[in-house]
UniProtKB/TrEMBL annotation:
The lineage of its organism: Bacteria, Pseudomonadati, Bacteroidota, Cytophagia, Cytophagales. It is a multi-pass membrane protein. The chain crosses the membrane at residues 14-39, 45-65, 86-108, 120-141, 148-168, 180-198, 219-243, 249-274, 295-320, 332-355, 367-385, 391-411. It comes from the Bacteria. InterPro entries: Poly_Biosynth_Transport, Polysacc_synth. Its main location: membrane. It comes from Mariniradius saccharolyticus AK6. It is found in: Cell membrane. Keywords: Cell membrane, Membrane, Transmembrane, Transmembrane helix. GO terms for cellular component: plasma membrane. This is Membrane protein involved in the export of O-antigen, teichoic acid lipoteichoic acids.
Amino acid sequence: MIPNLIKNRSVQNFIFLLTIQASNILISLISVPLLIQSIGLDQFGLVNLALSVIVLANILVGFGYNLSAPREVALSQGDKVRLSHLVSNIVSSRVLLALLASSFIMLAALGGGMFTEYKWILVFSLLLLFSEATLPVWFFQGLEKMKLVSLANVFAKLLYLAGIVLLIHEPTQSKWVNFLMGLSGLGINLLLLAYIHFQLGIRFFRPEFGKVIQSIRQNWLLFLSNVASYLSVNGGLIILSFFAEAQVLGMFSLAEKIAIVLRLFPSMLIQAVFPNASRLYAADLDSYHRYSKKIYAIGLLCGLGLTLLTFAAAPLIISLLAKKPLPESVEYLRVLAFVPFLAVLNFPNVLLLLVKDQKKLLFRSSWLLAIYVVPACFWLTAKYGAMGLCFGLISAEVVSLLVGTMFNWLYNREDFFRLIGFRVKGT
């Protein structure tokens, strides 16, 4: 049974997506002491500050293609010409957005007097935007062939780590840290695009400006949805900074980082099954609903196991990461441990909106959640401190479930009934 399960394309998709995320986290953990030792704590902080600006800019570069592109690739697999135009337009759109984001950041850093303390670190970090723009994970995700891109990601991270060891030795070299990350990623991504062209027979057409703009317009709502989701998931520490001292921020930040890693599970689950689910929904509704229910049951079991394991092992996890016991961080983590299970509860709602390409509903649900999360977390944090923020973030997952259920009840009632085991009369 297990060998057959491993052969399943969706399971392989999930495993390889997990490999990508795990390698990113592992290399990040390994690089921290190396960088602190070589460039010092102050420059390390500035490097990470520049990286946080790039992470925000990457939301613009991604522009929702992580949600829309795998579906389009999955539905276009049998038509090489259509697939070639699709790949050409998406890569061109993302490179154009990277150029736009780079121009804004350079203008702000070199001409607007912003980011003065770390402007050159930030300028050299801009290569990361083009690394993101050329990353073809969405293409291999749509084909459900993630092995190559996951191995390429690991290799790129190892190149980056080798670059740090061999080339970064003093604080004045801090501007090269993010540059090396971008260079290794961009180099590997260009090799992947060459593989797509020469081995898979995908042609790269000259960018059609009209279609590129049309592609960006079509993804506008998904981009705004990603912005809202980013604010909802990653805005907690910013809110807490208004009310807490540095020590509390540090203890909460440690627990939140673990919670963000746990939150990747439901996201990766959706990304892994999305291409196959899109094909099934277009071809056979009964097969889609059977598939969705099966994955939902597996996801719930895994999510519950992850929650219970994190809750029980919270003292050990915190002690290993902090090198000392931090009771407050343990309490925060035990509350946030429920995030993956609660997030998985919303899996069928999000998957249905994605396979039906209902961008407007995704946009509305994301911003309704953001409109709830920000004031609710502000109020709970002001009243109860960091623990109040933890419960605010937990309540956000519950509200997300309620909003997703409401939208599917209102707009996808037949599919909603079939999901919970009922059939609407006449179907």
